[in-house]
């Protein structure tokens, strides 16, 4: 017998359910289950044939409209080389991280570069935005400003003005009268994004949507519209740290994983052209627990310092506090050190951190994480002119990673003279860095730290 069609779907994660429940067991969200009309049974399901669509050749030559440069190199890079006309870009991030500041600055730059630009704020009154612009020294920029939350009004104005760029701050404050739900709910955010993306494609206006990331689930996060837009950028950083990272997590027009680095100053966001120098600027005397990782972020090499602290745990289960790295990856490396190198971390609290607030996701960071952990545990400082990179497998073997030459070149530029890396790495000799190639983590523990 055929299974009965699922009739209910979660509006947050899309999971299908056989019956209504208060909480979605797939994503844990409350009050998000809504009844769905099974496919083909809705009022529009008729047997009438469509008119068909016009098909073209893949090789058809139409000139792509040129990308627009913002004049902010860090932003242009993350966009894949500038803003594509008619594209829809989502900029997500925690409240207060600096999204409005970044986009007001970007809007001013685009406008000053000759792109007619409209900035719609649903969060602040026009006077507040003007005040911020004045503080940023942008009061004279030819940006047109609107404060409105009704999507219908916004779309009518955009249709009339036909700007080259519209910034919408934020999608969670706009509401569509076609949806019976509160502003910020999943249904509203989806509808608003859908209509604005449709407008972008129809009129060739680039649309940048701001979306707040929320932890409490009171309003829908930007995730629910990620699939609708061409480009998803996340603005990250830590409170109390001035550095901000704009990271492309999806880009239909360029490489994903590209980052732009900014510093929040009293006069807005300043671009950081040389992130490695910045992330390493706080390095003091060589101290146990610090290891410099030669990483790649997008297309650019970036050096960061992985810092570890290992301390006796007074009792109970030991702590594993990890900031800026994947905690799962860290657990794996701790297990490998224990099982393959005979270096136990049981009964020890472990704290790991990436200096400067960067989030490192590359597997190539494994060796730097292991190096920082070993250095902290054995109380042996690594040489101050040493960088590390390489992947650690479950057997404890070190595996080569890509772009070794780029990593080494960047390290050489910043004054590093030696590198610890997996045997078999295609590194060349151009960088002039002395290479210490190792086959497995046990060798690193024994030869570098005299442990194991
Ligand atoms: P904002 O852009 O309003 O954040 P979001 O739109 O992501 O919620 O940024 C708010 C923070 O930025 C606020 O805490 C103050 C700080 N800030 C500066 O440090 N310098 C500046 O020039 C500006 C405009 C803001
Ligand atoms: Mg804001």
List keywords for this structure.
21 strands; binds magnesium ion; nine-stranded mixed β-sheet; 10 helices; single chain; 25% strand; Ribosomal Protein S5, domain 2; seven-stranded mixed β-sheet; binds thymidine-5'-diphosphate; 3 domains; alpha/beta; Rossmann fold; 452 residues; globular
Explain this structure:
The strands form 4 sheets. The protein has a 9-stranded mixed sheet with strand order 6-5-7-8-4-9-10-11-12. The protein starts with 7 loop residues before the first strand and ends with a helix. It has helices at residues 73-78, 99-112, 126-135, 151-161, 186-203, 275-279, 327-341, 366-378, 404-413, 441-449; strands spanning 8-10, 16-17, 33-35, 88-93, 117-121, 144-147, 165-169, 206-212, 231-237, 243-251, 259-265, 268-271, 290-297, 300-312, 320-323, 348-354, 386-388, 391-392, 398-399, 418-422, 434-438. It is α/β, with parallel strands linked by helices and 452 residues long. The radius of gyration is 26 Å and the shape is globular. It has 3 domains: 1-40; 73-273, P-loop containing nucleotide triphosphate hydrolases (Rossmann fold, 3-Layer(aba) Sandwich), CATH 3.40.50.300; 278-448, Ribosomal Protein S5, domain 2, CATH 3.30.230.10. A hairpin with a 7-residue loop joins strand 10 and strand 11. It binds thymidine-5'-diphosphate and magnesium ion (MG). Magnesium ion (MG) binds next to helix 2.
């Amino acid at each position: 017998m055929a299974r009965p069609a699922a009739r209910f779907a979660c509006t947050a994660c899309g999971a299908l359910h056989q019956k209504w429940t208060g909480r979605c067991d797939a994503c844990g969200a409350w009050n998000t289950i809504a009844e769905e009309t099974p496919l083909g049974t809705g009022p529009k399901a008729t047997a009438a044939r469509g008119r068909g669509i016009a098909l073209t050749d893949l090789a058809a030559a139409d000139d792509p409209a040129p990308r627009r440069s913002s004049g902010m190199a860090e932003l242009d890079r993350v966009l894949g080389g500038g803003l594509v006309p008619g594209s829809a870009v989502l900029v997500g991030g925690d409240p207060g991280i600096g999204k409005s500041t970044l986009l007001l600055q970007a809007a001013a730059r685009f406008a000053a570069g000759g792109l007619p630009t409209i900035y719609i704020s649903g969060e602040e009154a026009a006077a507040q935005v003007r005040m911020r612009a004045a503080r940023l020294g942008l009061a004279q920029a030819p940006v047109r400003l609107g404060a409105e939350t009704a999507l219908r009004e916004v779309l009518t104005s955009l249709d009339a003005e036909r700007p080259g760029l519209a910034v919408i701050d934020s999608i969670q404050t706009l509401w569509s009268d076609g949806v019976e739900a509160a502003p910020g709910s999943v249904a509203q955010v989806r509808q608003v994004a859908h209509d604005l993306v449709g407008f972008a494609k129809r009129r060739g206006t680039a649309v940048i949507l701001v979306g707040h990331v929320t932890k409490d689930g009171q309003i829908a996060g930007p995730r629910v519209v990620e699939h609708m837009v061409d480009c998803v950028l996340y603005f990250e950083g830590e409170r109390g740290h001035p550095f901000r990272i704009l990271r492309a997590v999806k880009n239909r027009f360029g490489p994903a994983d590209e980052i732009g680095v900014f510093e929040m100053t009293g006069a807005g966001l300043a671009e950081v052209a040389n992130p490695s120098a910045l992330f390493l600027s706080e390095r003091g005397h060589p101290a146990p627990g610090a290891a410099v990782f030669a990483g790649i972020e997008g297309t650019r090499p970036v050096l960061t310092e992985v810092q570890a602290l290992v301390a006796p745990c007074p009792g109970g289960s030991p702590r594993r506090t990890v900031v800026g790295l994947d905690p799962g990856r860290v657990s794996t490396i701790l297990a490998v050190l224990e099982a393959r190198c005979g270096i136990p971390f049981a009964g020890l609290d472990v704290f790991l951190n990436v200096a400067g607030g960067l989030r490192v996701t590359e597997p190539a960071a494994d060796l730097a994480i292991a190096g920082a952990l070993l250095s902290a545990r054995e109380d042996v400082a690594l040489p101050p002119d040493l960088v590390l990179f390489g992947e650690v497998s479950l057997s404890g073997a070190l595996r080569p990673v890509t772009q070794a030459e780029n990593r080494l070149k960047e390290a050489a530029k910043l004054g590093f003279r030696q590198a610890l890396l997996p045997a078999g790495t295609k590194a060349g000799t151009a960088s002039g860095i002395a290479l210490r190639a190792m086959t497995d983590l046990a060798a690193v523990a024994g030869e570098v730290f005299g442990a194991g």
